[in-house]
Amino acid sequence: MSTRTRRTRMFVAATLAAAALTLTACSNGKGVRDEGASAGSASTSAPTASTTPSSKASGGTSTGTGRSNPAGWTSEGSTGGAAGSSGTTGSKGSSGSRGSKNSEPTSTRCSTTSTRMTATEVSRPLNHLLLTVTNTGSKNCNLIGYPAVRFGEAQSVPPAFEDSKPQAVVTLAPGESGYASVLLSAADGSGSHGYTAKSLAVYFNDGASAAHPSLPAKGVYVDDSIRVSYWQSTMADALAW
To answer: Positive or negative CA dihedral for 142, 147, 152, 153?
Structure first.
C-alpha cells in the first residue's frame, strides 16, 4: 500500500470518528445552547413573576368599595372611624328631649292645696288686717287678682282698691310669701252696719276652695267701709292701702 493511500484512509477514519462524537453529544440532550434564546426566555418570564405578588396584594387590601385601603388600615380601624363619625351622642344631645320637659308650665295658680294662709291684725295702719300666703308646694304659683274675703255670715265679698293693682302677677317660688291687706272699718267711725266677725273665709281667684285663717279670739270689727288690696309681693305694698 502506498503512502498516499494510507494517509487517505487515516483521514477518512478521523472524519468518521468526529462525526460519531457529534451524534453522541446530541443524543445526550446537551447540544449547544442558544444563549440568545435563553436570555429571551428569561426576560419574558420576569414580568409574570412580578405580577403575581402585585395581584395578591391588591386582592388582600380590598375594602369592598372598589378602592384599596391605604397602607396600615384594617377593617377594624375603618369600622372605628365610621363609629367615631356617626355622632350619635351629638344627635341625642340635639334632640332636645330635656328641653321638651322644660317647656312645661313652671307655675300654676296658687290654691289652698299648695299654700298656707294667716290673718294678722296690725296696729298701723288702723283697722287693718294683713293676709299672708306662703307657697308650701314644690312649684311656683301665681297670686292672681285679689282675695275674696267673707267675714262671719256676710252674704257678699268686699270690693278691691283698684289703684293697688300691681303691674305684674305676683309669683311665689316654693317657700316665698305674698300679701294683701283688708281695711276692716272706717278709722273715723263713718262706716255703718258694723258687726264683730269671728270667722273668715278667703277665696283665691279660682273660687274653687277657701282658706280659713284664724282671727283673734275677740274677733274683728267690720263695717260697710271694708275694702281689700290686690295681692302684693311685699308687706309694705300691701299695708299701703
So the answer is: negative
Strand residues in the chain grouped as ranges (E): 107-109, 115-122, 128-135, 140-143, 148-151, 170-172, 177-183, 195-197, 200-203, 210-211, 220-222, 227-228
Q: Which residue did the predictor score with more confidence, 208 or 128?
A: 128
Cα dist. 159→26, 148, 164, 207 in Å? Answer: 141, 8, 12, 15
Check the CA dihedral 136-138-144-148 and report its sign.
negative
The Cα 111–Cα 118 span in angstroms is 14
Rounded CA gap, 201 and 230, in Å?
16
pLDDT tens digits along 76-90: 444 444 444 444 444
* Cell representation of residue 134: 306662703
Q: Looking at residues 207-232, what average pLDDT do you find? A: 94
The pTM of this model reads 0.57
In whole angstroms, what is the distance from residue 129 CA to residue 137 CA? 25
Task: Give every CB contact of residue 62 below 8 A, 6+ residues apart in sequence.
Answer: 68, 69
For residue 178, the one-letter residue type is G
Alpha-carbon torsion, ordered 196, 199, 205, 209, to 10 deg:
-150
Query: Would residue 59 be called left, alpha or beta, if left means φ above 0 and alpha means ψ between -120 and 50 degrees?
Result: alpha
Rounded to 5, what percent of the chain is helix, strand, coil? Answer: 35, 25, 40
Compute, in degrees rounded to 10, the torsion defined by CA atoms 120, 230, 111, 218.
Answer: 20
Helix (H, G, I), strand (E, B), or coil: what is residue 171? strand
